[in-house]
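Appendix B. Chain record.
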Amino acid sequence: MIFDRPTSIELITAVIDFLNTEIKEELPPHLVFKLRIVTNVLQIVQREIDLGECLSKEAEELIKEVIKSTQEPSLVELANSIKESSTELDKESLKNALIEITKSKISVDNPRYSTFKKLVE
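Structure tokens predicted for this chain:
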């Protein structure tokens, strides 16, 4: 990679820390809530940058197990395969792929989500 430090992750972490340590205390309660929304969005972006490539590759491998295709596997292709009935809904590999892809998405969107915690235990 051509970029030096700080990395994108380090920059986002610095912004989150700054907002939470320097700005949060100076805001009225209604803006503190909005600040929480902003920091949550930044944390999602941070996890997408950090985990996105790996999770995407894992999803592609799962989709490959479900559908046979000459194109790169994608969620759109999987959805079309289901829509066109070329993938059987009771296929075990389909169930497994959908569960694992959903867990991956939740791990980025909100890893503190109680149902996600139960799924990964």
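Further analysis of this model is presented in Appendix C.
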